[in-house]
Every structure is written in structure tokens, then in C-alpha cells.
Specification:
This protein is mainly alpha-helical. The protein is 35% helix and 0% strand. The relative contact order is 0.15.
Length: 103
């Protein structure tokens, strides 16, 4: 019985010693607009761009591949940046044409 009472005291002591910090929630930042006014291509030629890679390049997000993920894939983001440097605006990325994902 003594050991049980000691155990209860230890549990109460440990439970009362723990405290949790209050976290203030903040509104997430929105997408940052690309400022192309100061971008120059220099001597680089961005007329041709080929993206080869893994799930990051394809836009694999949340365990599946879907349209929104492909729109925000690494290849699409790089193409937007290359457009600022004078690359052609056409970028062909194969789409699976599904909003709910394909796994």
C-alpha cells in the first residue's frame, strides 16, 4: 500500500510539473508575387528547358499526384522563374487531369 501511495505522489508531482506554452496562431503568408523587373538572363539561354526527376519534379504531394500538385511542381516553379529571364512562356507538362489524386 505504501508503494502505491508513493506512486500516486510521483505521478501527481510529474503531472503538475509539466506545463505547455501557449502558441499564438498567425495567419499564413500568401503567395509571393514574382518581381521580374530586376531579372536578366545574362549569357544564359533559357529557350529550352527539360525537367527530369523524381516526385518533386512531377508534383507529388500529400501521397498522391493531382492537378494542384502538378501546378506547383518544381518544374512549373522553375519555368515561372525562367519566364522572368526571357524564356518562352510555353511549358508543356503532362497532366493526369484529376483533382482528387492518383496513387
Amino acid at each position: 500500500m505504501r508503494n502505491f501511495i508513493k506512486l500516486i505522489y510521483i505521478v501527481l508531482f510529474v503531472a503538475s510539473a509539466c506545463s505547455q506554452d501557449v502558441i499564438d496562431l498567425q495567419e499564413p503568408e500568401g503567395p509571393v508575387e514574382t518581381n521580374c523587373s530586376t531579372v536578366t538572363a545574362g549569357t544564359a539561354d533559357f529557350s529550352k528547358f527539360v525537367a527530369i526527376g523524381s516526385s518533386y519534379v512531377a508534383g507529388f504531394q500529400a501521397g498522391a499526384l493531382f492537378n494542384e500538385g502538378q501546378d506547383n511542381s518544381l518544374a512549373a516553379i522553375l519555368n515561372k522563374q525562367f519566364e522572368c529571364a526571357g524564356a518562352p512562356a510555353e511549358f508543356v507538362q503532362p497532366s493526369i487531369k484529376t483533382a482528387y489524386g492518383y496513387n
